[in-house]
Structures are given as structure tokens and as C-alpha cells.
Amino acid sequence: MSLRIPRSLVAGILVAAAMPPWGWWPLALVGVALYGTSVLPVDATNRQRFTSGWLFGVGWFLPAMAWMWFLTAPGYLIAVALFAAFHGAAAVVAGALTRGDIRRSPLVFAATHTLAESLRMSFPFGGVPLATLGIASASSPLAALAPWGGVVLITLSTFWLALGPSRVGRILLFVAFLIPATFFDFTRESGGDYTVALVQGGGEQGTHAIDTDPRKVFDRHISLTRTLSSSQDIDAVIWPENVINVDDFETSRELDEIVSEAKRLDVPFVVGVTEDVDSDGFTNAQLVVSQDGTIEDRYDKVRRVPFGEYMPFRDALSALSDSTNLVPRDAVAGRGPGVLTIEGVQASVAISWEVFFGGRVEEGVEQGATFIINPTNGSSYTGTILQTQQVASSRLRAREQGRHLVQVSPTGFSAHVTDRGDVRARTGISEARIVVAAVPLREGRTFYSHTGNAPLICLLLLALATAMWSRRGRSRSTLGSIETGVNEVTHS
Fold it and tell me: 401, 446 in Cβ contact below 8 A?
């Protein structure tokens, strides 16, 4: 007896294989096209459509979101099932609006699945915008759409291009738009480079803060920083997220050591600091420390990682298991836009998880930022699924805003990404290394930087409302024709 694997499950696995760390991006289009053959037959029932959409999502998310296992194993399985259900519902809605015939409107199917992804990127707990078709497309020609519509437009285009018949005509139309979009985004260099030293101290992955001596992490970074020469042409030194873990930074010995290095190199330091608030909370911030010891600026992380930096339903979960012990205290959310001023130069700052959300980076650019900083810490995860997807997300954020981006992590990856999404330098995992990057400062704003995701999502909702109204009109017309026919038979 042979085991028959559902076609939609295979389709989802192909989409997952398009994601980093595997990165075979053409498989995203192949997977979506294969999925279409399982969900789009005219005679499919709603139950069959939901099952096809759900299995498609399971094949996609189960491997591509496996990093979540290290946060919460039960939460990982629940998230995969929930997010897959979004696509099951999208298949049902699209089938109802088109009477199951993709030839009526490939755009309807593309719109419902794009809205399913938009929902996943914002719900629950603020969303989980990883393993997206945008991330899968960071190395593909579709990434050129990022300055024009971000991940939502990339997702819509992937479904629209791959689903249904007449793909050749759609591809030709798409290429006609893609060529000018690739070379023009309304941003430009503002003059001069800003040279930064990104310090990755190295160390093992798969470690948790509660099991790590924070001083050892600091020592790795300060020791490596001391290898920098005062004769090097550097404008700032940037350290990763929360590699300084103290009760109070302003009274700590760590501040004294940072100031000593800032004076020696005659440059400001941008450092990640975790401080105590009380017995139940802590802050996660990026601070600018000047050569004279002044804390010039500070940004506190706004978007916290659920089950990583704060524990939803802590009381209920504590009664079920001891998994909440990995996050004994909750991070206190910051407020305001993510922007830092470093000796007059403004940088958009997205701390770790925040780089997966385009809006966090956009707020800093709106305030006049000329480049982007992503300090992060992925040392608690094993493997490279999350880390490689973060680099891909950094590439998307750079293209969306037309800015160079520097990412710095204690154990990897640290990278310099250009405004075109190209990776100029990237460290290895657990490597101790300093990346010196000359970052061109840029000005101007892309179309996406002005609009964000909301207008495109509203247009998709309007398109579905129009399709629904059109279907009702066709149904009434058909009913009227039947009634007329009945009357004619009756009176004859």
C-alpha cells in the first residue's frame, strides 16, 4: 500500500524551501502554482478547499518557523496550526467569491491569501512576520517591489503570478513594471560615508540569559574592541543588543570601561543595555555613549518578543509548566520612534525582532534617519533559520527605505546591507570578528516609506468587497432569469 502525500502539503514544503537558510527562491512560485492545482478545481467543496489551504500552510510554516520551538514548543505547534488555518479560510473565501473558477479572477485568490499573510504579520501578540514570501524573495527580482509596496506587494505578486492560467501575459506585464521599479526609488546619497565598527564578540549559540554570566559576554566584546586602533578611520563603534546586562548602567563599571575605549578611539559608542526596573521588569535599550561619558541618546525597544521578552498569560502558563522560568521577568516596552542621534548623524534603530516590522524602521526614516541600525541577539537559538531570515528581513528593510543597514549580533550574523539589498559583509555563526563598514548616508523617501502597508491592504479589501457585490449581482440576475422562465412556462 503506497502512502499518498497531499499535493498541497508538498506545495507548502516547496515554499518553505524557498526561505532562508535554504534559499531556493524560485520554489516559492513553483509551490504556489502547485498549490493552485489542488485548491482551485471548480467542483471542490469548502471543506476540501480549507483542507488544501491548511495543509499548504502546514507544509510552509512547520519547517520555516522551526526556530519558534526554542521559545515555546507548544506555542510553535499552535502557531503553525493557526497560521495555516488563515490560508484555509482564504481558500474558502476565494472559492466562494469566484464560484471555484480561478479563470474568473486570479486576483481574488491572490488577494485572500495575501490578506491571510497580512493578518499573520499582525495577529496574535503583534504578529509573527517571519517565513514570509517577502523574506523568501529577498534574493529574487521580486525584491525590487519592496520600495513600492513592501512585503504585502511581494506576497500579492507571487500569488498573482503563479496562480491560474494565462501566466505568460501576467509575467510580461509584471516585467514591464519591474524594470523601472528596480532602478528608481526616490532616494539618493546625501554626501559622505559614515564608517562604523560592528563588534561581534562571538560565543556559543543555544544559550539563555538566565544560564549565562553577563560579564563574560561583556568581556568578549570589550576585549575585541580593544584590538581596534586609534589610527583607524572610524566614526562610531556599535555593539549588539543587550550585551551589557546590569542593574543600573550609569553607575556601572561597564560604563567606565566603555568610556575609556570611547576616549581612546575618540568616537562615540552605540551599545545595547539591559537594566533592571524592578523585580518584575527590565528595559532593553540602545544607548549612545559619547567620549566624555555622557549618554547622548537612548532608544528603548517598543516591539517585544512574545514568549521571549515577555510571557503572555504568565499565571495560566505557570500552572501548566515551568517553561515560564526561561522568561522570569517581562521587558518594559518603550515608546516613540526608533531613532538615535550619534554626534549629529541620525540613525533609524530597530532592535532585533523589530526589524521584521517595516513600520518600526519607517518611523526612524520619517524622523530624518540617513541609515539603519539593527542591533540583535540570536544566541538563544540553535541553528540558523531565524538568523538567516533576519538577514533577509534586513535586506528588505534596506530596500523599502532606500537606506544602508548595519546588523550587529554577539554570535552572528552581523552584516552590512546596501540600499539595494546587497550584503557587502557578513560574519559567521559564533565567530569573534569586527566588521568595519563605510556606510553612505542617504536622504529622500521611497513610496512605501510614505504609505506603509495600510493603503494596499485597504485596496485588497475593496477588491474582495467588489467581487462579493458582483457575485450577488450575478446570483440575482440568474434567479431573475429562472423566475421569468417559470412564469413563461406557467402561462403557456
Answer: yes
Give dist(CA 293, CA 309) in Å, integer: 29
Do residues 274 and 242 make contact, with C-beta atoms less than 8 angstroms apart?
Answer: yes
Residue 199: inside a domain, yes or no?
yes
Pairing of strands 415-417, 433-443: unpaired
* Domain limits for position 28: 7-184+453-479
DSSP string, 229-255: -TTS--SEEE--TT-EEES-GGGSHHH
Return all residues near 345 (Cβ < 8 A) that are at least 6 apart.
Answer: 194, 235, 370, 441
- Same domain? 390 vs 467: no
Give every CB contact of residue 324 below 8 A, 6+ residues apart in sequence: 311, 314, 317, 318
Q: Which helix (H) or strand (E) holds 110?
A: helix 106-120
Give the separation between CA 361 and CA 25, rounded to whole angstroms: 25
Rg (CA), the chain: 25
| pLDDT at site 167 | 75
Q: Assess whether 70 and 204 both reside in one domain.
A: no
pLDDT tens sequence across 433-480:
999 999 999 999 999 999 999 999 999 999 999 888 877 655 555 434
148 shares its domain with 64: yes
- Round to whole Å and give the CA distance between 320 and 78: 16
